[in-house]
Design goal:
Length: 157
């Protein structure tokens, strides 16, 4: 595919390429920070990594960073635990979010790298690759918690 450009160069710009690319963003959440890895879904290659503070401003920066990939999905490690706040926030904003169990991403990290070394960047990449290779992951539902509370309150009446 080629794009006609005003400057005469027939190749696509980086922005044009990203607009066509489907991206899976793997997230390794911690109490103080969130590390992400963007992977091209077609070939499973790392495109970019970033890290953000786990606070209101950091999460806004993360969402701004992710907008550069219009066709994106999210894979959050342990979306029922440390990743819950971010996963629910993303799902409530209309994003597609999958919950990746920590054991699955650890297995992918071990098999991909050949050793058990662990760091946030590798964990985010392993989370993305685990989601890319596994179609049966649970989707994060932003309404699930409120539904459970509603059922509990009805039960108590």
């Amino acid at each position: 595919m080629s794009f006609a450009r005003a400057d005469g160069d027939g190749g696509p710009t980086e922005m044009e390429v990203r607009a066509l690319m489907k991206v899976l963003i793997g997230v390794d959440p911690h109490k103080a920070s969130v590390t992400v890895a963007a992977v091209d879904e077609a070939v499973g290659e790392l495109i970019e990594r970033a890290s953000f503070p786990q606070d209101r401003d950091g999460l806004r920066s993360l969402q701004r960073w992710a907008r550069r990939f219009p066709e994106r999905r999210w894979a959050v490690e342990n979306a029922g635990g440390l990743g819950r706040h971010l996963a629910v926030r993303l799902a409530a904003a209309g994003e597609s979010v999958a919950d990746v169990p920590p054991k699955l991403s650890a297995r992918v990290r071990l098999l991909s790298s050949g050793n058990a070394r662990k760091n946030d960047e590798l964990d985010a990449l392993a989370t993305a690759l685990a989601a890319l290779r596994n179609e049966r992951l649970a989707a994060v539902d932003p309404e699930a918690a409120s539904e459970v509370l509603r059922l509990l309150s009805e039960r108590r009446l």
